[in-house]
Amino acid sequence: MYEFLTGTIDAVHTDYIVVAVQGIGYKVIVPNPYRFAVGAKDVTVYVDQIIRDNIGITLYGFADLDEKVMFQHLISVTGIGPKSALAILATGDAAALVQAIQENDLKYLTKFPGIGKKSAQQIILQLADRLTPTGKPALTVKTVADPDAVNNSPALRDALAALRTLGYSDKDVVRIAKALRQEEAHSTDDYIRLGLKLLTQP
């Protein structure tokens, strides 16, 4: 069982990264691939290895240990699989997630792809007493003076593709695309974080 990988980020795709460790490239599925930069060296990715008869061995990776633990909590919930857990974690806002679970906020939880009312209730039932508040800062972005300046931004384009990969419908992605074009984000990761906030807000 792998606990973590430390190596060079060889590639970043819309739903996974490749971590090169001593000449071996590991395909690692992560909540938000664009948190990682191609070419970054000595990067530690915490991993959870899941083996299934119909899929084989899959490595799920996380930027820190807390995120990995949260993933393990989520997939322990009845009816929540790895894909749904990754979509929930992709926001990067652990504090908001923990708060929603502890405050029985079904509206927040059902904003995520694949999470209906029944699944949200199950998450709250099984995790409310197992999680402690966290104080991770929320993303802030500044409004750009000329919205058209980022209309064709490769970072924005990649972010919209990543949101679709996470399970959001074309309709939802198109709905928030205009708002994202009004924002100044410095990377695909920034756009994804902001997009997820827009998609999950009331």
From TrEMBL:
<dbReference type="InterPro" id="IPR036267">
    <property type="entry name" value="RuvA_C_sf"/>
</dbReference>
<feature type="region of interest" description="Domain II">
    <location>
        <begin position="64"/>
        <end position="141"/>
    </location>
</feature>
<dbReference type="InterPro" id="IPR013849">
    <property type="entry name" value="DNA_helicase_Holl-junc_RuvA_I"/>
</dbReference>
<keyword id="KW-0378">Hydrolase</keyword>
<feature type="region of interest" description="Domain III">
    <location>
        <begin position="150"/>
        <end position="202"/>
    </location>
</feature>
<keyword id="KW-0547">Nucleotide-binding</keyword>
<dbReference type="GO" id="GO:0006310">
    <property type="term" value="P:DNA recombination"/>
</dbReference>
<dbReference type="Pfam" id="PF01330">
    <property type="entry name" value="RuvA_N"/>
</dbReference>
<dbReference type="GO" id="GO:0005524">
    <property type="term" value="F:ATP binding"/>
</dbReference>
<keyword id="KW-0227">DNA damage</keyword>
<dbReference type="Pfam" id="PF14520">
    <property type="entry name" value="HHH_5"/>
</dbReference>
<comment type="function">
    <text>The RuvA-RuvB-RuvC complex processes Holliday junction (HJ) DNA during genetic recombination and DNA repair, while the RuvA-RuvB complex plays an important role in the rescue of blocked DNA replication forks via replication fork reversal (RFR). RuvA specifically binds to HJ cruciform DNA, conferring on it an open structure. The RuvB hexamer acts as an ATP-dependent pump, pulling dsDNA into and through the RuvAB complex. HJ branch migration allows RuvC to scan DNA until it finds its consensus sequence, where it cleaves and resolves the cruciform DNA.</text>
</comment>
<dbReference type="InterPro" id="IPR000085">
    <property type="entry name" value="RuvA"/>
</dbReference>
<dbReference type="GO" id="GO:0000400">
    <property type="term" value="F:four-way junction DNA binding"/>
</dbReference>
<keyword id="KW-0233">DNA recombination</keyword>
<feature type="domain" description="Helix-hairpin-helix DNA-binding motif class 1">
    <location>
        <begin position="107"/>
        <end position="126"/>
    </location>
</feature>
<feature type="domain" description="Helix-hairpin-helix DNA-binding motif class 1">
    <location>
        <begin position="72"/>
        <end position="91"/>
    </location>
</feature>
<keyword id="KW-0234">DNA repair</keyword>
<dbReference type="GO" id="GO:0005737">
    <property type="term" value="C:cytoplasm"/>
</dbReference>
<dbReference type="InterPro" id="IPR012340">
    <property type="entry name" value="NA-bd_OB-fold"/>
</dbReference>
<comment type="similarity">
    <text>Belongs to the RuvA family.</text>
</comment>
<dbReference type="GO" id="GO:0009379">
    <property type="term" value="C:Holliday junction helicase complex"/>
</dbReference>
<dbReference type="GO" id="GO:0009378">
    <property type="term" value="F:four-way junction helicase activity"/>
</dbReference>
<keyword id="KW-0067">ATP-binding</keyword>
<dbReference type="InterPro" id="IPR003583">
    <property type="entry name" value="Hlx-hairpin-Hlx_DNA-bd_motif"/>
</dbReference>
<keyword id="KW-0963">Cytoplasm</keyword>
<keyword id="KW-0347">Helicase</keyword>
<comment type="subunit">
    <text>Homotetramer. Forms an RuvA(8)-RuvB(12)-Holliday junction (HJ) complex. HJ DNA is sandwiched between 2 RuvA tetramers; dsDNA enters through RuvA and exits via RuvB. An RuvB hexamer assembles on each DNA strand where it exits the tetramer. Each RuvB hexamer is contacted by two RuvA subunits (via domain III) on 2 adjacent RuvB subunits; this complex drives branch migration. In the full resolvosome a probable DNA-RuvA(4)-RuvB(12)-RuvC(2) complex forms which resolves the HJ.</text>
</comment>
<dbReference type="GO" id="GO:0048476">
    <property type="term" value="C:Holliday junction resolvase complex"/>
</dbReference>
<protein>
    <recommendedName>
        <fullName>Holliday junction branch migration complex subunit RuvA</fullName>
    </recommendedName>
</protein>
<dbReference type="InterPro" id="IPR010994">
    <property type="entry name" value="RuvA_2-like"/>
</dbReference>
<dbReference type="GO" id="GO:0006281">
    <property type="term" value="P:DNA repair"/>
</dbReference>
<dbReference type="Pfam" id="PF07499">
    <property type="entry name" value="RuvA_C"/>
</dbReference>
<keyword id="KW-0238">DNA-binding</keyword>
<dbReference type="InterPro" id="IPR011114">
    <property type="entry name" value="RuvA_C"/>
</dbReference>
